[in-house]
Amino acid sequence: MMSRKFSCFLMLVTAVLNASAQPTYTNQDINRLKNKYAPVRIKALPKEYPANFDQRPFQKPKYVDWMLPYHEWVDEYRNYFQRHYQDPSIRLQPSLICMHYTVSPSAEGIWNSFARGTQMSNGNKGSVFGHVSVHLMIDQQANIYQLMPFDRRCTGAYGVNHKAISIEMVAVTEGDLLSRPDQVYASFSVVRDLMKRYNIPLSGIIAHYEVSQGKSVVPDYTDYADSEYPDRYPSKYFRSDPGPTYMAWLRSYLRKNPP
Predict the structure, then answer these.
(1) How far apart are the first and last CA of the chain?
(2) pLDDT tens per residue, range 129-155
């Protein structure tokens, strides 16, 4: 039976999305929902790994260009990477892949929020206007959209953006995501393809919730902008995406089907 808290959550998402024909929520709205409805402790869902995933023939993913206007953000991104990583380069040599879900059912709405920009954290020094970005977004129909080039640093996974390719899956919750096997399998194929392309080990496949736990879980975690919490997210910014069941499935698939 749907809990009152989750029911209220869905009502809030619906209200935000229905406010106009085009979604008008911002990254701050998304962060607020993630923070408010993330469980104190992440619990695995009682769902079994789909055995037929291992029988599916691997097909190289088709990446559909839906590029963000990242060329307009060069100076902004140089400043961002200098603040947080003491390295102004915007070139990425990926050694990590970080998985997310959007907490919104609208791929177009997420793309618009990225392009519009919002106030972003500046560590414990307040906030600064900027543009959140990820490299890929996989929608509910398993379409794989490329939003940033793979050799360009994005800002989707605070703490590891200097090393990580970030992948968003369009889903409201982990349970919502796991209800769509084709979308889940598309994400597995993408990770497998990128691991091979960039020689990324299984240990480099991480979840956003693991990044939020900081250096004790993800040793590459870095943040020079926050002198109060340099090694992890403050508790109010804890993340739950994409969830432990999804990550267990992903890692099981990659162990059985290495690149």
Answers:
(1) 40
(2) 999 999 999 999 999 999 999 999 999
Task: Quote the pLDDT of residue 36.
Answer: 47
Residue 242: asked if its preceding bond is cis (omega within 30°), the reply is yes
For residue 210 the two structure tokens come to: 């693991």
Q: What are phi and psi of 172, to 5 degrees?
A: -85, -40
What's the rounded Cα separation, in Å, for the pair 240 and 114?
20
Is a pLDDT exceeding 60 seen at residue 39?
no
- Residues across the chain: 259
Which residues lie across from 65 on neighbouring strands? 146
CATH number of the domain located at residue range(s) 4-256 in this protein? 3.40.80.10
Q: Where are the domains of the chain?
A: 4-256
Q: CB of 131 within 8 A of CB of 68?
A: yes
**Amino acid letter, residue 118:** T
Q: Report whether 120 contacts 132 (CB < 8 A).
A: yes
Taking a C-beta distance cutoff of 8 angstroms, is the pair 163, 89 a contact? no
User: Who's near 136: CB < 8 A, 6+ residues apart?
Assistant: 63, 144, 145, 146, 147, 165, 166, 167, 168, 190
Task: Kindly give the pairing relationship between strand 136-138 and strand 144-146.
Answer: antiparallel
For 20-135, strand residue ranges (E) read: 63-65, 96-101, 118-121, 127-130
